[in-house]
Amino acid sequence: MYIQVLENLQRDGKNVISSELLARTCDVNPSQIRKDLAYFGEFGVRGVGYYVQDLITSIKQALGVDRVWKCALVGVGNLGRALLNHREFRLRGFHIVGAFDCDPFKIGEVVSGLEVVCSRRLKERTADLGIELGVITTPPERAQRACNYLVDAGIKGILNFAPARIEVPEGVTVEYVDFFHHFYAVAFNVTLGSQD
Amino acid sequence: MYIQVLENLQRDGKNVISSELLARTCDVNPSQIRKDLAYFGEFGVRGVGYYVQDLITSIKQALGVDRVWKCALVGVGNLGRALLNHREFRLRGFHIVGAFDCDPFKIGEVVSGLEVVCSRRLKERTADLGIELGVITTPPERAQRACNYLVDAGIKGILNFAPARIEVPEGVTVEYVDFFHHFYAVAFNVTLGSQD
Question: Which residues cross the membrane (chains A, B) (predicted)?
């Protein structure tokens, strides 16, 4: 969240931010902000605040995301295509370097400069391309199979956009990117608001 | 999360689940599960567990999401198209009934059965169609303008897929759907894991 807020400020041409304003923008209390940022090695300058670029750099370093992560995407449907075309990924250091699908009609197609490759070749391509993260954008009923290919290829971090739980062995991290969680949350809040 | 897990179980043909198994699947402790589900009015059956369908119904009722929510989508780029084509939305009760864009080349185009309409007509269409939620899928620099159109149309709940913070008046709920948060989290975990 801090990175998102700070990159937004930077986009608006702001180079410096006070912890109070940062706190308000993030909806976090100022003492929590100071504690969090101290953890990243950033203490701010009294009377000035934080330098936005320095803060972004420090947070990214602390999280280990100040470098390029090569990603494989499995499932070249509508969502997969949207992600392959999403310029923001490259800006954030996440380079999708392999696109995989098991549909023979999709294999060989070029999407956003990448040739779609059969999912069975994931292991071989992962080694060749130095892929470290996997992105699952299959329909829910094919998510586990996509996951198995990624795990078999030795990938330790998976982003699952499919609305399905998947099982992974120990040592593999899964993050669920679940749109509907957010839709339910907004619908719930609107319902509450309308009862006031 | 409970809804996602339970719908997944249902997809796998399971009709009943114990609180222990549900707890393990959700990575939540069993006493928390029992507390949460009691809040939804579901107490389970001793020796049997919870009926999956009843539990889904109770949770959706408690959250006010056991009905159809009509949504407007603003920004018919790659991501917007992916969401418009995403069959899962309709299954979950979120019907995207209006697609808006300010690009004259997109206005009039039909995407997933919807004619793209000029964003300036959002207010008028919101009233006609009974739209309650807005979905922003514009580039970041146009998110605030899209938001302003939605707020002006009287919409109280916004899902923002654009990687940009937006400002809304009191009484309007915004949920940020931020892919990159999840990417950073996975990258961070993989980095930690590789240091073991």
Answer: none
Cβ atoms of A153 and A136 closer than 8 Å: no
Query: What is this model's ipTM?
Result: 0.82
Residue among B179, B192, B194 with most chain A CBs within 10 A, to mutate: B179
Our separate counts of H helices and E strands in chain A read 9, 9
Residues B22 and B102 grouped into a single domain: no
Candidates B166, B170, B183: best to mutate against A (most CBs of A within 10 A) is: B183
Residue A7: its pLDDT value, please? 80
Count of domains in chain B?
2
Residues A96, A101: Cα–Cα separation, whole Å: 14
- Closest in A79, A180, A188 to B92, CB measured: A180
How far, in Å, CA of A46 to CA of A97, rounded? 44
A101 and A153 share one domain: yes
Residue A6 lies in a domain: yes
Return the pLDDT at A2: 84
Given a contact cutoff of 8 angstroms between Cβ atoms, the answer to whether B157 and B133 are in contact is yes
Contact yes or no for A188/A174 (Cβ under 8 A): no
- Average pLDDT over chain A, rounded to an integer: 88
